Amino acid sequence: MLKRRTAKEAFEELAEQGFYEEANLDKYEVEKVLRLVLEDYEFGKTLRKITNPNWRVIFNINYDVLRELCSQLMRFKRQKISNHQGLFAFIILNFPKLEFDWEFLETVRNMRNQNKYFGSDISKENWISIELKIDLYISALDKEVKEKIKETIWKS
Question: What's the count of helices (H) and strands (E) in the chain, helices before strands?
Answer without folding.
Answer: 6, 2
